[in-house]
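User: hey, got a sec? need GDT1 family protein folded
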Amino acid sequence: MSSVALAEIGDKTQLLTLLLVARFGKPFLILLAITLATLVNHYFAALIGELVNQFLNPQMMRWMVAMGFLAMAVWVLFPDRDDGEIRGGHPFWTSLMVFFLAEIGDKTQIATVLLGAHYQHLTWVVLGSTLGIVLANAPMLWFGARLQPYLTSGWGRRLSALLFATLGVVTLMV
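Assistant: Yep! Here you go:
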């Protein structure tokens, strides 16, 4: 959960969450859509990770997971691009589809693949990664607009990078 929440800090989906609530003004409905989109997306991500682990020995898997965390440390240092404006539609369905698509190939999805490969407990990985996304994005629904002028995404990206690098090094040492 914490790995995915960290990957979400300063991510494009946090900006997307702000845009969705600014556009539709229905935070609870958008939160439900984000939760469902993440559950489905991360189920498939964790399943892929679990399948990959069946074909790799434990030593190779440990190195792959560690390198994945170290790559995530570098990746989170680069800001995401704003992919544009959100147009009409029903708040729930628009939020569900846009968030699901935004998660494809995202840092949090890759982190979920790595966690699924490492832990091999699909249900817990999916629930933990979904909870991490919800916890990282829920405050954006209510407080994001007011806090945005005071927070810099650069600081959040640097902290995330440090924590992912630490996870990578610790994984290699264990």
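Quick note: The chain is about 80% helix and 0% strand. Let me know if you need anything else on GDT1 family protein.
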